[in-house]
What does this fold into?
Amino acid sequence: PTYIINDLRSMSYRNMYMLKLAFAYARKSYVEDSISQNIPEHLLKMTVTLAELSFLLSEYSESMKYAIQGIKMAQEKENKKAESKLFFCIGENKRMLSFKEEGYENFDKAIQLLGDTQDLKEMAMLSYFYGVKMGYLVDDSNFDEALATGLEREKIINKMNLFPNKPGYIDQQYAYVYSKLAFICYMKQLYAQAETYFKKYQSTQAALTPDGKYDAVPYLLMTKQYHEILNICDDFKKVLRQQDTLNVQYIGVLQKEIKAY
It folds into this structure.
């Protein structure tokens, strides 16, 4: 059916960072679902997708509209996974619209919904939520809470790591959390701990990839390893140039380069 084909096209474009095309195909699939009214689960999935893609395209009020609509559907279906994704999405929109406290309230709602999960996919999502929240706390210089959040994330990743069929992205998640913990500990003047976490980060496979290397930049800035930063930024920009939109991530790389100069 065409609604599935459009959904798959949307996912492919999203994976290639081609967000405008991803949104266009997700919207087509969503409209078909809305007209047919046959597959409420798929309509909910596309509503979540449109909320997330609108956010990534900086269309915050449109993203909020889809998220609020989706939460109602998710609660009716008792779909905690979709509901938590949408609360998190609202949190990100609130943050971008400068309502920081409301942002954190929604992040915490999303985290609470999945708090006691034993499901691997939900754990992966919970780990992602902790990671993003941790990043925002760092941006707000709230290093005590960022450290607590990072340690919670590490616990979840450790749990996921015990599954016999553990997914390949666990290594990536370790790389991200250790690079962030290294930076946070450095900011809290816990220099020995910072170095320990940075060594843990360096021992991951992800630390060898362009985007994995980029995770190290905040710590490298603090430890004044400027030449290394410029090389990392250069590699990561090559990856990002394949996108169809100049997004927040690319601007972030340029800002890091300016600091290194």
The first helix runs from residue 2 to 15. The radius of gyration is 19 Å.
